[in-house]
Write a structure and sequence with these properties.
Bound molecules: iron/sulfur cluster
Radius of gyration of chain A: 25 Å
Largest sheet of chain B: 4 strands, parallel
Strand order of the largest sheet of chain A: 1-10-7-4-2-3
GO molecular function (chain B): oxidoreductase activity
Number of helices of chain B: 13
Largest interface: A-B, 75 and 71 residues
GO molecular function, one term (chain A): 4 iron, 4 sulfur cluster binding
Helix content of chain B: 40-55%
Strand content of chain B: 5-15%
Helix content of chain A: 40-55%
CATH architecture of the largest domain in chain B: 3-Layer(aba) Sandwich
CATH class of one domain in chain A: Alpha Beta
Structural class of chain B: alpha/beta
CATH topology of the largest domain in chain B: Rossmann fold
Distance between the termini of chain A: 49 Å
Number of strands of chain B: 8
Protein name (chain A): 4Fe-4S ferredoxin
Order of helices and strands of chain B: EHHEHHEHHEHEHHEHHEHEH
Pfam family, one (chain A): LutB_C
Shape of chain B: globular
Keywords (chain A): 4Fe-4S, Electron transport, Iron, Iron-sulfur, Metal-binding, Repeat, Transport
Number of helices of chain A: 23
Structural class of chain A: alpha/beta
Radius of gyration of chain B: 18 Å
CATH topology of one domain in chain A: Rossmann fold
Oligomer: heterodimer
Amino acid sequence: MEHKIKDHSNAAARFLKDEERATWHDETLWFVRSKRDKAAQQLPEWESLREMASGIKAHTLSHLDKYLLAFEAKAKANGVHVHWATDAEEHNRIVYSILAKHKAKNVVKSKSMLTEECGLNHHLESQGISVVDTDLGEYIVQLRKEQPSHIVLPAIHLKKEDVSNTFHECLQTEKNNFDPAYLTNSARIVLREKFLEADAAITGVNFAVAETGSIVICTNEGNADLGVHSAPLHIACMGIEKLIPKAKHLGIFLRLLARSATGQPITSYSSHFRRPRKGQEMHIVLVDNGRTQQLGRKDFKDSLKCIRCGACLNTCPVYRRSGGHSYHNSVAGPIGAILAPNLDMRKNADLPFASTLCGSCTNVCPVKINIHEQLWSWRQILMKEWYGSPAKKASMKAMAFVLSRPRMYKLSGKIGRKIMQWLPGLVNNRLNPWHKNREMPQAPRQSFNEWYEKNKR
Amino acid sequence: MKVALFIPCYIDQFFPKVAIATLQVLEKVGCEVFYPVNQTCCGQPMANAGYASLANSCNKNFIQNFYGFDYIVSPSGSCVAHVKEHLHYKPREKEAAIMRNNVYELTEFLTDVVKVVNVGAYFPHKVGLHTSCHGQRMLGLSSMSERVGPSFSKPEQLLNEVKGLQLMRPARVDECCGFGGTFCVTEEAVSVRMGQDRIRDHAANEVEYITGGDVSCLMHLEGILKRQKSRIKVVHIAEILNTKWSIK
Ligand code: SF4
């Protein structure tokens, strides 16, 4: 089981091998964080906005049943079909059955991390339905048959050269034309076609308003609008935690979301959908997939406040230096590391350890999720349950034993320092991960304790 | 003012001069300092690795050694933060609660409790401050770049009063250095890369020293500096404050 601990760590080490790319990844995301800082600083009320947003989410989560039912009733009254899915499989089945009923063959999708979480593309494609991700970044990773590496900037791990190669291969663009404008335009031409011929549009949901039964989708490319407005069928897929009580609360979240995500005052498109337009059919799929379970975990329920702005990824010094794929989960970074173990503890047990617990995520988070504390709490649970190998547990036990007994502690400290002085090869070797790229500290002749006994007593 | 000196295990074993400097600075500002000789470890290494349950006997020992003093002071932000947040021991929960409240990191103790920022130190060098995360974000020793609000820094306040010292700010003022306890070993590659990046940022300012309030971060940075054969040295803030400015 010990090898599991190393999953993120190994993937990160591989990512860091390409030093130049790693530097570029780090600097690009740091640039986004700096933009966020500037945008936040311009609002003296920033901290109180965070406080309000966090409070509204806490309230909604503790009355989630009531708000969900209210939302469903309103949406139905607006002429929307509402579905409930307990897990990813049911979600995929529902979406497929709606598409099948309409004999839809071509689907355009606007970015939705939920469908990513559920593996919807794969499911639909295996049934002969073509799904095109229309967000540019998503489209790029889709062509490359990769997962998004960031929840807001899905292709941030790629450079324009990579995109050029991918487009040359898949879209027959000019070889070695790295001009971003050229590349974007080439994708746009293809995507326009897809929008026009789509039988259905699938979108995610950023906010669902219980009071009105409406949903809000935020994009910078307008691709959700384009899809929904050209297709005769709209399916919106949302996690049940996307709810907010009232329309008047939207202002708070919209102000926080874009600033936290990219430093923009607001996303280019905040589209509100309340009812199907004439001749169109609209469906909303409400998905649980582990969310009620997380809601029931006292220490982790606040993770459901997340509005998926990505700020905690951009700020995380570990994420910036390991890339999103090292988190092997649809949501990467600090928030992913506290959501993933809820879905599968065994598979994701390494993620809460992929952090220095520096706490930057907690303080950047617009809805004030105590992310680093939850990482700490997951560590406790994972170790208690089964994750720690017997060897690790034994060594920790031995350590705790020695460290809680003053005499034994003093003696073993002395022995340890002596070994380091006399036999430095014992610690300065390749088996010691510290020593690979760092020198060990020099062991002093006497400890402070020994100095004190001699000089102060 | 009865002050108990809390010297974390790794400082005791590997960095006794930091402990001595801390003791002497506290005496210099007029504190009556006691060092409970049977102290060991606060339990943080176990807790952060997911074995908080094993830290129970460390907590018991900590309470036995430190209960009853007006203040507990330590030259390590992360150990203090750990005690503040996680010191619990069922049979002596009342005492633990009091102690979680009167444990202080050295720089905050000097600025907030003793209220002396000029300790008469002299350090004629170009120095970069490494802002350690636990001290900054958990103890609130300084404002952080993520938050909107007035900017302040307790360690900087002290360093600004040191004669001859030229304080340099790195471009990324408060990014983590990558130490992170067992993280530095389990995530060796990321940890080292983070440390190298911090050093590059400080080196751009042509500093002679990198200082900070956490020996663990400094030890990690020092390990990398030495491997790179850099001429930049690390020095704990207590050691700077313990230097003397004779012509007062
Ligand atoms: S946890 Fe907070 S910072 Fe991270 S994506 Fe969610 S809302 Fe944004």
